[in-house]
Fold:
Amino acid sequence: MPRLGYLAVSAAAVLWAAGGAFASYLIDEGASFVELTEARAWITALALGAAVALRRGNSRPAAGVPLGWVIVFGCSIAAANLTYYASLSRLPVAIAITVQYTAPGLVVLWASIGERRRPGGRVIAALAGTMVGVALLVELPVVISEGQLRLDALGLLTAGASAVAFATYIFSGERVSRGMGALDAVLRGFVIASILWIVVQLVRGRPDTLLDRRFTTGVVFLAVATTIAPFLLFVWGLGRIRATDAAIVSTLEPLAAALIAFVWLDQSLSGWQLAGAALVLVGIGIVQIERPPPAEVLAERAAVE
Structure:
Protein backbone atom coordinates (compact mmCIF):
# COMPACT_ATOMS: atom_id res chain seq x y z
CA MET A 1 0.00 0.00 0.00
CA PRO A 2 1.62 3.28 -1.10
CA ARG A 3 0.17 5.30 1.78
CA LEU A 4 1.84 3.03 4.31
CA GLY A 5 5.09 3.36 2.35
CA TYR A 6 4.95 7.17 2.58
CA LEU A 7 4.12 6.95 6.29
CA ALA A 8 7.06 4.59 6.94
CA VAL A 9 9.55 6.84 5.11
CA SER A 10 8.20 9.91 6.95
CA ALA A 11 8.55 8.18 10.32
CA ALA A 12 12.11 7.18 9.44
CA ALA A 13 13.00 10.79 8.60
CA VAL A 14 11.65 12.00 11.95
CA LEU A 15 13.60 9.33 13.85
CA TRP A 16 16.78 10.23 11.97
CA ALA A 17 16.29 13.87 12.94
CA ALA A 18 15.87 12.87 16.59
CA GLY A 19 18.98 10.75 16.30
CA GLY A 20 20.96 13.65 14.91
CA ALA A 21 19.91 15.88 17.81
CA PHE A 22 20.81 13.23 20.39
CA ALA A 23 24.11 12.43 18.68
CA SER A 24 24.99 16.15 18.75
CA TYR A 25 24.34 16.13 22.50
CA LEU A 26 26.69 13.15 22.99
CA ILE A 27 29.35 14.76 20.79
CA ASP A 28 29.13 17.94 22.89
CA GLU A 29 29.73 15.72 25.93
CA GLY A 30 32.96 14.42 24.36
CA ALA A 31 31.88 11.42 22.28
CA SER A 32 33.50 10.75 18.90
CA PHE A 33 31.04 10.98 16.00
CA VAL A 34 33.02 8.31 14.14
CA GLU A 35 32.76 5.85 17.01
CA LEU A 36 29.06 6.63 17.54
CA THR A 37 28.44 5.81 13.89
CA GLU A 38 30.52 2.65 14.13
CA ALA A 39 28.68 1.45 17.22
CA ARG A 40 25.29 2.07 15.63
CA ALA A 41 26.32 -0.08 12.66
CA TRP A 42 27.73 -2.90 14.79
CA ILE A 43 24.76 -3.06 17.17
CA THR A 44 22.32 -2.94 14.26
CA ALA A 45 24.09 -5.80 12.47
CA LEU A 46 24.15 -7.94 15.63
CA ALA A 47 20.55 -7.22 16.61
CA LEU A 48 19.12 -7.85 13.15
CA GLY A 49 21.32 -10.93 12.75
CA ALA A 50 19.78 -12.32 15.92
CA ALA A 51 16.28 -11.45 14.66
CA VAL A 52 16.87 -13.28 11.38
CA ALA A 53 18.31 -16.27 13.25
CA LEU A 54 15.20 -16.44 15.44
CA ARG A 55 13.08 -16.73 12.31
CA ARG A 56 14.72 -20.18 11.93
CA GLY A 57 15.69 -19.76 8.33
CA ASN A 58 12.31 -18.56 7.11
CA SER A 59 13.64 -15.31 5.65
CA ARG A 60 13.04 -14.58 1.99
CA PRO A 61 15.85 -15.91 -0.20
CA ALA A 62 18.05 -13.28 -1.81
CA ALA A 63 18.54 -15.18 -5.06
CA GLY A 64 16.91 -12.40 -7.07
CA VAL A 65 19.26 -9.70 -5.79
CA PRO A 66 22.76 -9.50 -7.32
CA LEU A 67 25.50 -9.42 -4.70
CA GLY A 68 26.82 -6.22 -6.22
CA TRP A 69 23.67 -4.31 -5.28
CA VAL A 70 23.92 -5.55 -1.70
CA ILE A 71 27.56 -4.43 -1.48
CA VAL A 72 26.72 -1.03 -2.96
CA PHE A 73 23.88 -0.67 -0.45
CA GLY A 74 26.11 -1.46 2.53
CA CYS A 75 28.98 0.76 1.37
CA SER A 76 26.62 3.68 0.76
CA ILE A 77 25.29 3.45 4.33
CA ALA A 78 28.79 3.85 5.76
CA ALA A 79 29.88 6.46 3.20
CA ALA A 80 26.83 8.71 3.69
CA ASN A 81 27.52 9.12 7.41
CA LEU A 82 31.28 9.51 7.15
CA THR A 83 31.24 12.09 4.34
CA TYR A 84 28.41 14.11 5.89
CA TYR A 85 30.21 14.53 9.22
CA ALA A 86 33.46 15.24 7.40
CA SER A 87 31.76 18.04 5.45
CA LEU A 88 30.42 19.55 8.69
CA SER A 89 33.98 19.92 9.95
CA ARG A 90 34.88 22.17 6.99
CA LEU A 91 31.64 23.93 5.98
CA PRO A 92 28.86 25.90 7.68
CA VAL A 93 26.04 23.54 8.65
CA ALA A 94 23.65 25.32 6.24
CA ILE A 95 25.94 24.68 3.28
CA ALA A 96 26.61 21.04 4.21
CA ILE A 97 22.91 20.20 4.62
CA THR A 98 21.89 22.06 1.46
CA VAL A 99 24.47 20.18 -0.59
CA GLN A 100 23.57 16.83 0.98
CA TYR A 101 19.90 17.31 0.15
CA THR A 102 20.62 17.62 -3.52
CA ALA A 103 20.43 13.81 -3.22
CA PRO A 104 16.71 13.69 -4.15
CA GLY A 105 17.59 15.50 -7.37
CA LEU A 106 20.24 12.89 -8.11
CA VAL A 107 17.75 10.08 -7.49
CA VAL A 108 15.25 11.68 -9.89
CA LEU A 109 18.02 12.15 -12.49
CA TRP A 110 19.26 8.57 -12.19
CA ALA A 111 15.72 7.19 -12.35
CA SER A 112 14.94 9.22 -15.47
CA ILE A 113 18.12 7.94 -17.15
CA GLY A 114 17.47 4.36 -16.07
CA GLU A 115 13.82 4.40 -17.11
CA ARG A 116 14.56 6.50 -20.23
CA ARG A 117 11.70 8.90 -19.63
CA ARG A 118 11.40 12.40 -18.26
CA PRO A 119 10.07 12.80 -14.72
CA GLY A 120 6.48 14.05 -14.52
CA GLY A 121 5.47 17.54 -13.52
CA ARG A 122 4.32 16.25 -10.12
CA VAL A 123 7.81 14.99 -9.26
CA ILE A 124 9.56 18.11 -10.60
CA ALA A 125 7.26 20.43 -8.61
CA ALA A 126 7.70 18.40 -5.43
CA LEU A 127 11.47 18.22 -5.90
CA ALA A 128 11.80 21.98 -6.47
CA GLY A 129 9.64 22.82 -3.47
CA THR A 130 11.43 20.52 -1.05
CA MET A 131 14.96 21.45 -2.14
CA VAL A 132 14.26 25.18 -1.85
CA GLY A 133 12.48 24.45 1.43
CA VAL A 134 15.54 22.70 2.85
CA ALA A 135 17.76 25.66 1.91
CA LEU A 136 15.37 28.02 3.74
CA LEU A 137 15.07 25.69 6.75
CA VAL A 138 18.83 25.87 7.32
CA GLU A 139 18.67 29.65 6.71
CA LEU A 140 21.00 29.64 3.73
CA PRO A 141 19.93 33.21 2.76
CA VAL A 142 21.02 34.43 6.22
CA VAL A 143 24.38 32.68 5.89
CA ILE A 144 24.94 34.37 2.52
CA SER A 145 23.78 37.84 3.63
CA GLU A 146 25.98 37.78 6.73
CA GLY A 147 29.06 36.88 4.73
CA GLN A 148 29.42 33.44 6.31
CA LEU A 149 29.52 31.64 2.98
CA ARG A 150 32.82 29.88 3.63
CA LEU A 151 33.38 27.59 0.67
CA ASP A 152 36.14 25.13 1.40
CA ALA A 153 37.02 22.99 -1.63
CA LEU A 154 37.50 19.78 0.37
CA GLY A 155 34.36 20.50 2.37
CA LEU A 156 32.30 20.92 -0.80
CA LEU A 157 33.81 17.72 -2.18
CA THR A 158 32.87 15.69 0.89
CA ALA A 159 29.39 17.27 1.02
CA GLY A 160 28.90 16.34 -2.63
CA ALA A 161 30.13 12.82 -1.87
CA SER A 162 27.57 12.66 0.95
CA ALA A 163 24.79 13.56 -1.48
CA VAL A 164 25.94 10.89 -3.92
CA ALA A 165 26.19 8.30 -1.13
CA PHE A 166 22.72 9.21 0.17
CA ALA A 167 21.22 8.97 -3.31
CA THR A 168 23.01 5.66 -3.90
CA TYR A 169 21.65 4.33 -0.60
CA ILE A 170 18.08 5.18 -1.67
CA PHE A 171 18.48 3.85 -5.20
CA SER A 172 20.17 0.59 -4.20
CA GLY A 173 17.92 0.19 -1.16
CA GLU A 174 14.87 0.15 -3.41
CA ARG A 175 16.25 -2.76 -5.41
CA VAL A 176 17.56 -4.73 -2.46
CA SER A 177 14.36 -4.28 -0.45
CA ARG A 178 12.10 -5.44 -3.27
CA GLY A 179 14.30 -8.49 -3.77
CA MET A 180 14.65 -9.76 -0.23
CA GLY A 181 12.47 -7.69 2.14
CA ALA A 182 13.35 -4.91 4.56
CA LEU A 183 14.79 -7.00 7.41
CA ASP A 184 17.21 -9.03 5.30
CA ALA A 185 18.15 -5.99 3.22
CA VAL A 186 19.04 -3.82 6.22
CA LEU A 187 20.87 -6.71 7.90
CA ARG A 188 23.09 -7.36 4.88
CA GLY A 189 23.69 -3.67 4.35
CA PHE A 190 24.82 -3.13 7.93
CA VAL A 191 27.00 -6.24 7.96
CA ILE A 192 28.95 -4.74 5.07
CA ALA A 193 28.98 -1.29 6.71
CA SER A 194 30.19 -2.86 9.97
CA ILE A 195 33.13 -4.52 8.24
CA LEU A 196 34.13 -1.18 6.73
CA TRP A 197 33.90 0.51 10.13
CA ILE A 198 36.08 -2.19 11.72
CA VAL A 199 38.79 -1.33 9.19
CA VAL A 200 38.39 2.38 10.00
CA GLN A 201 38.66 1.78 13.74
CA LEU A 202 41.74 -0.42 13.36
CA VAL A 203 43.41 2.57 11.73
CA ARG A 204 42.11 4.98 14.40
CA GLY A 205 43.25 2.89 17.35
CA ARG A 206 41.66 2.70 20.79
CA PRO A 207 37.85 3.36 20.73
CA ASP A 208 37.73 5.70 23.72
CA THR A 209 34.03 6.61 23.34
CA LEU A 210 32.91 3.00 23.24
CA LEU A 211 34.98 2.16 26.33
CA ASP A 212 33.54 5.10 28.29
CA ARG A 213 30.59 3.92 30.41
CA ARG A 214 29.06 7.43 30.31
CA PHE A 215 28.07 6.82 26.72
CA THR A 216 26.89 3.19 26.89
CA THR A 217 23.18 3.93 27.35
CA GLY A 218 23.26 6.69 24.74
CA VAL A 219 24.97 4.49 22.15
CA VAL A 220 22.43 1.70 22.65
CA PHE A 221 19.57 4.20 22.35
CA LEU A 222 21.02 5.61 19.13
CA ALA A 223 21.35 2.13 17.69
CA VAL A 224 17.85 0.92 18.55
CA ALA A 225 15.66 4.01 18.28
CA THR A 226 17.47 6.04 15.63
CA THR A 227 19.18 3.38 13.50
CA ILE A 228 17.44 0.00 13.57
CA ALA A 229 13.90 1.38 13.62
CA PRO A 230 14.27 4.14 10.97
CA PHE A 231 16.36 2.05 8.56
CA LEU A 232 13.83 -0.78 8.69
CA LEU A 233 11.00 1.70 8.17
CA PHE A 234 12.73 3.48 5.30
CA VAL A 235 13.77 0.34 3.45
CA TRP A 236 10.32 -1.20 4.02
CA GLY A 237 8.82 1.96 2.54
CA LEU A 238 11.17 1.72 -0.44
CA GLY A 239 9.58 -1.62 -1.22
CA ARG A 240 6.21 0.10 -1.66
CA ILE A 241 6.89 3.49 -3.23
CA ARG A 242 9.31 4.75 -5.86
CA ALA A 243 12.85 5.71 -4.90
CA THR A 244 12.19 9.19 -6.31
CA ASP A 245 9.18 9.68 -4.05
CA ALA A 246 11.03 8.32 -1.00
CA ALA A 247 13.95 10.68 -1.66
CA ILE A 248 11.62 13.68 -1.75
CA VAL A 249 9.80 12.61 1.42
CA SER A 250 13.19 12.21 3.17
CA THR A 251 13.50 16.02 3.16
CA LEU A 252 11.17 15.85 6.15
CA GLU A 253 14.31 15.15 8.21
CA PRO A 254 15.68 18.75 8.31
CA LEU A 255 12.16 20.01 9.01
CA ALA A 256 11.81 17.58 11.91
CA ALA A 257 15.28 18.61 13.15
CA ALA A 258 14.22 22.27 13.20
CA LEU A 259 11.06 21.40 15.16
CA ILE A 260 13.04 19.26 17.62
CA ALA A 261 15.42 22.17 18.20
CA PHE A 262 12.42 24.44 18.74
CA VAL A 263 10.79 22.13 21.30
CA TRP A 264 13.77 20.45 22.96
CA LEU A 265 16.47 23.11 22.74
CA ASP A 266 14.11 26.10 23.07
CA GLN A 267 15.37 27.58 19.81
CA SER A 268 13.19 30.03 17.86
CA LEU A 269 11.99 29.51 14.30
CA SER A 270 12.73 32.37 11.91
CA GLY A 271 10.57 33.53 9.04
CA TRP A 272 12.94 31.80 6.62
CA GLN A 273 12.52 28.52 8.46
CA LEU A 274 8.74 28.79 8.58
CA ALA A 275 8.67 29.45 4.83
CA GLY A 276 11.01 26.51 4.26
CA ALA A 277 8.84 24.25 6.41
CA ALA A 278 5.78 25.20 4.35
CA LEU A 279 7.57 24.46 1.06
CA VAL A 280 8.79 21.08 2.30
CA LEU A 281 5.32 20.08 3.46
CA VAL A 282 3.74 21.23 0.19
CA GLY A 283 6.35 19.33 -1.82
CA ILE A 284 5.81 16.15 0.20
CA GLY A 285 2.07 16.57 -0.26
CA ILE A 286 2.43 16.98 -4.03
CA VAL A 287 4.52 13.84 -4.40
CA GLN A 288 1.81 11.78 -2.71
CA ILE A 289 -0.89 12.78 -5.19
CA GLU A 290 -2.22 9.51 -6.53
CA ARG A 291 -1.64 8.57 -10.15
CA PRO A 292 -1.89 5.17 -11.85
CA PRO A 293 1.47 3.39 -11.35
CA PRO A 294 3.21 1.71 -14.28
CA ALA A 295 2.56 -2.00 -14.80
CA GLU A 296 6.08 -2.97 -13.71
CA VAL A 297 5.64 -1.18 -10.38
CA LEU A 298 2.34 -3.00 -9.78
CA ALA A 299 4.11 -6.30 -10.46
CA GLU A 300 6.93 -5.44 -8.04
CA ARG A 301 4.48 -4.47 -5.31
CA ALA A 302 2.54 -7.71 -5.79
CA ALA A 303 5.78 -9.68 -5.41
CA VAL A 304 6.63 -7.81 -2.20
CA GLU A 305 3.18 -8.20 -0.66
Notes: The chain has 15 helices and no strands. Residues 89 and 155 are 8 Å apart (CA to CA). Residues 153-180 form the longest helix (28 residues). Residues 2-304 form one domain.
